[in-house]
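pasting for the record
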Amino acid sequence: MVDAVSRELLDLGIRPAEAGEFTKRAFENGKLDLVEVEGLGDLISAETEMQRRLAIEHTSGGLSAVYAGWADRLTRARALIEAELDFADEEDIPGSVSDQVWDDVERLKADIKTQLEATQHGAFVRNGFRVVISGPPNAGKSSLLNALAKRDVAIVTEIAGTTRDILEVDLNLEGFLVRLVDTAGLRETEDIVEQEGVRRARSAIETADLILALIPIDSDAEWNQTSVAAPVLKVGTKADLLTAPSIGYDLVISSKDGSGISALIDAITSEVRKRWNGIAAIGPGRLRHVQHLKHTSFFLEEALSGTQLDLRAESLRLAGECLGRITGRVDPDDMLGVIFSEFCIGK
């Protein structure tokens, strides 16, 4: 039946819609901007509650409103400066109006800096909060991965160096996507394949949002990766062998009998919450926005540090263009509207 109707429609000259065509038409007709379009795409692919909430915020125009507010402030700043440059002989133009705008430009630059940090730190909601499980061989890394995943993901043996590659498992913790990363044991080795595994493990540590440094309680191993940027939780493993109080660990667990696993999950969730609470009120954007925000900030700084008013005005114009590229709307006529609405030029 469906095929028959489709054939009849094709005979009438009606064609199937292309991928994303309705959304594209909505953008071209001003119904959605690029930020809202991206939010719609994120909503379609959302797997967790927090991904859905963030996508809805973007689709409903929350982040677009932030960018639009900044664009309005920048447009007004440009309008006042252009008014002084072009209409200085008009009696309706107050003297040195440009002096009024620089304080707000400074505040705008600070707001953009905050948004930049939020966007860079907030990528974990969309891409997953990366928790890297690290430590020496036979520390119980793969056993912990299996325990957290509640299934056999990694091969577990008593042979040191069993894990040679990166293994990843996605968890949904309180609506957040958490990506567990199992790595090869950190040690010096002559085995070429294991050397590559260790290299990949160190690379994973560098990109982690949180590191679980596993140390067997029955060994004298230590965590000695001192140059990492992510928070580190020192986790004593094989707690089922514990015969005395543990010292020097943030948590003690046993993948064998499950003790401490719930506390570890709570600790991971707490770290995710800390990251979210620091950015939730701002509404993190996409990494695409970062490039344009950085360029906007650069031109704002150029305008603030300049000495010639015409060159400073040009820097503000370039900043406005960069900001407009985020939403996909750059309309120079907005500036003229502000000029003629605030001053009685050409009366």
